[in-house]
Amino acid sequence: MARNIYAKLAVTNLKNNRKTYMPYILTSMLMVMMFYMFDALTKSKDLRMETLRLCLQYATGVMVIFSVIFLFYTNSFLMKQRKNEIGVYNVLGMGKRHIAKMMAVETVIIAGVSMIGGLILGIIFGKMMYLILLKILHSGVEMKFAVSMAAIKDCLVLFLIIFMLTFIYNLLQVQLANPMELLRGSSQGEKEPKTRWLLALVGVLALGSGYYIALTTKEPLKALLTFFLAVVLVIIGTYALFTAGSIALLKILKKNKKYYYRQGHFTTISGMIYRMKQNAVGLANICILSTMVLVMISTTTSLYAGMEDVLHTRFPKAVAVTNYQTSRESRNQLQEALEKECDRLHLQRQSQISYRCGQLMASQKDEQFEINADAYNSSKICYLTLLPLEDYNHMEGKTETLNENEILLYCPDGKYNYYDLKIAKENFHVKKQIRKLKAEVEKTQSVYGNYYIVFKNTDAILKILQMQNYSGQNVPEAFKKNQQMLRYYTAFDLNGKNAENAKILGKLQKGLNKVPYTEMESRETSRESFYGLYGGLFFIGIYLGILFLIATVLIIYYKQISEGFEDRKRFQIMQNVGMSKREVRRSIRSQILSVFFLPLFMAILHVIVAFPIMVKLLRVLNLSNRALFAGCTVTTIGVFAVFYAIVYSLTAKEYYRIVN
């Protein structure tokens, strides 16, 4: 056989199957383009934010895994559609060795077009992506345009391996099958599926367990530990319920004679049973991808949109200064330095508060607070700030008094429901719960339980701080000493034209750092790092969201193509047994709508159930604005649902063209 015949056959096959191969090639090009741009950005020397670089590296890893899985999945669909065609070649006398050569040429053409086209697009749009990222980060850094040879190399290696593996898979499919299997390969599976009750039960239990974890997890730190377990359980449950649970439910409806033998129910249920058998995995994939898109975009958008809320939650005052020596001399030295530096930099202070305090972590169980080493391994962690009465009265302008073993208590995020409080072996009576405290914003939702406790004097505070046990822990002596003594804290807001000037506040920080044992942090000097992290997460969320959205669209498109070829035969059979064209169309349309909108319904249900645990995870990232997150989630779901419906209506045209 002439060598060029393989190339001609390969080109002809790709032309004849262009409705299925063109979307595959375009998607492969987009994946190459997106991987190149992401990898080039990660390797850019102009990217100076190491936290962002690390996030981008993790996202690049996600893209690699997703590209391998998704291209394999779509390739397997294409192979199933072409088995009949390859079987015809085999029956007409074309040996499997010749078919392999033809398929090799096809793979080379697809890989070449995808990689070359994708790299060209990546290089063209790479600069634009850099500019978008800088805009998101609010960065004024100038980035030079350069083609990343390292990223091109990574891209070529990755996708060459992927296309080579898909070719080997296709080759095995042809080599291990006989011609008759190939001829009926695209229409296999017409027997009524068996009911797999065990798998359906596993699906119900897995999904129910995942939902239970999401709805009952209360503490943000525990949410960090249980979230991924809940995700795995929901994924397992989704696949099991789509593959076995849906068929089990349809079989139950089929056994109900009164329901099954009604007009419209008979053909719909029978058709749905076969559809779910053939499309369950694809529908589950659409559901999982849709859920990922909704969660990723809603969370990262709310973090970015709520940046000011995040900064004000993390920094209640514009400037906070901590001195780890509470002697009168060190406090006077700090106040003098603060006065001098603020005058020099023309900074106007307002709403200033100052107090001495001790701070420690504890594990809470009812009114008992444990402060030993085991407290740090507990999910009931809380943060205790211990203030002397003298400083409290001075800060609040009060004249409160306390007896021995009496305390005042302030809990910003809720009410303490006990009359006594026990720290280690020390018992205290709660004389009064404070309603407001200038040191903390009221009703703040923090990661830990948060308590401010006012004691009669500093001796009581030092006695508690020195109970901390560091035995068996590799902790520096300086840290132990620092944690077992009082610190002096002063914080204030700023007014005037220099209040939001990060450079001037940076000079203030340098000036105050000259005071021994002093640290300063401010909202404005931290703004760039917060935008670097949260802006980067927003960029990655939108980027990966688009990637998963492309995958969802392609799966929906292939599902419509597959449904079209299957329903063309059913369309003819239904008409032959006496159904009118209108009845057939109505039956098939109801099945199609049920099948393709079921993943969207399930994805929205997953997001609604995941909402409470996502709120707690966002609190770990300092976003406590529940209303903002709810608004972003509802908006994302609405936009995605409209987009999903548009994609369905566009791909449905191809379906009806095939059926007719």
Automatic annotation (TrEMBL):
Its main location: membrane. The keyword Cell membrane applies. It is found in: Cell membrane. The chain crosses the membrane at residues 21-38, 58-78, 99-125, 145-172, 197-215, 227-253, 282-307, 531-558, 592-615, 627-650. It is a multi-pass membrane protein. Belongs to the ABC-4 integral membrane protein family. This is ABC transporter permease.
